[in-house]
Design goal:
heterodimer, A: 340 residues, mainly alpha, two-stranded antiparallel ribbon, 15 helices, 1% strand, B: 238 residues, Rossmann fold, 2 domains, 6-stranded mixed beta sheet, LivM-like (chain A), cell membrane (chain A), membrane (chain A), ABC_transp_permease (chain A)
Amino acid sequence: MMDPLASSRHGFIRTVAAASAMLVAACAVSLQLNDYYLYVVTIGAIFAVLAVSFDVLLGYTGYLSLAHGALYGLGAYICAVLTARHGLPFWAALPVAGLATGAAGALVALLSFRTRGLYFAVLTLGIGLVGHQLFLVFDQVTGGVGGFVGIPGPEQPAWLPVSPVAYAALLALALLWVTFVAASLFVRSKLGAACLAVREDITLARALGIRVAAARLSAFAFSATFAGLAGALFAAISSFIAPESFTVLGTGFQLVALVVVGGMGTLWGPVVGAILLTALPEALRVASTYSLLAYGVLLLVCVIFAPKGIASLISAAVRRFRGKSKPAPDPARLRREATP
Amino acid sequence: MSLLRINGVEARFGGVVALAGVTLDIPEGVIFGLIGPNGAGKTTLINVVSGLVKPTAGSITFGAEAGGPWPIASAVSRGIVRTFQQTRAFLGLTVRENLRIAAVSSPDPACIEELVDACGLAPVLDRVAGDLPYATLRHLGIALALALKPRLLLLDEPAVGLAEEEVERLGALVRRWHAGGITVLLVEHNVRFLMEMSDRVAVLDRGAVLFVGTPAECQDRQEVIDVYLGRRQADAAD
């Protein structure tokens, strides 16, 4: 009999291959775009990084955290301070921002020990609000409401002859690839299985020896690390950041929408959600009155007609296509197999 | 030699006394049946031993180790594993994903292949657990527990709701794993199944141990017939 636990490794190789093909295609297409659309690609990819990291927490572990926007901001400010004030190169500041934000995420997990459901959401709402206020209050460090200006961009290697805007888009797409592959590896690991158990039935998880606190802590730290990396890249690419980019009501709830519309617990669904929900407002920017209206209608339509997210619709369509394209079984072979 | 020694365990919930000083010795390598009327404290005792409920008094010795009961994760790491009265599996996940979770804490994940075969789960590996027939779901719940290679398996009413032939399959499964060296504490209302399976039986009534002995001795004791077996027979006749 086949090993009942074997499917994971093949699935991971297929996922990496598909993600790599998508990365190459996205880079090739992006290099044909003008600066404005390159900027849209960059922001879309950064939000996709955030959405994938958020999906590990919400989709795989079952925790609706509203502090993710503040963690994204923390990564951005750490990168800004290290590069603009302390002269650290972007490539050194990036991992520091990621790791420090990951540690902050672990702290959120410890603070919210034993809370679940709505209580957890409200607790993280508080953390998100406090985080946003700290960005405003510590204006000596963050620049306060006026924002942090003059953040150095990522150093561009001489061997890559593309414009700085195109380079930023390539970096954002590369970070998305790294995040996606790392998240795929995480959810297929023992920790990922433990997170699924925590999401589904915490009592049964405990009865099966799952260390619930360790699973939660790792999911929070993993998710926050990539939120911090996204924030650091956003800060370096934008050269200016302000607290308004990291609010609970803005980024915090937008992330929930991206993941729910895309499809929770799929990793690639939130990427689709991020592309759709960041591209749409930009596409409708010419008619800004209708932009928010269209955004709201899109959310309603998705939640009513695709409650499991766009990913479920795409998966169903692919299954149907595969079913139709499969060759009809050979009746002689079926008879042979049925004969004892 | 005793594998599990329960010493004067008490459990109170507000004014309700669920366990009133239970003392039991469960020898290593036996199937130990536990019966009693509803509310006798059988499930509470399993909850205490497995670390899900903290007793108000008393202690547990497991093997040579005193100082129990331990929190549930520590109990599992010592080899005390339980199933639940209400069928419990990860209902939103496939059978394969359920087994992958059990493999996280399993000291021998290779045994899962054998379990899949023994529990008849091979044809349903990619089905969502919530869509499985009841009997298959019961077997999945037991497979998850057995995947942890327990020293002591606590089975809380595993046969409830199963048809006769399914109960026989369940019995064969438990016996097969018991023969591999697992001690079993079996709580069950299906008296025939319990008596056939068990090497020794204890009867609980109102949180206290009424009787401990072999199944044959148990069925002959007047006080057991009075508080439990007689009532079961009367219920069956109704």
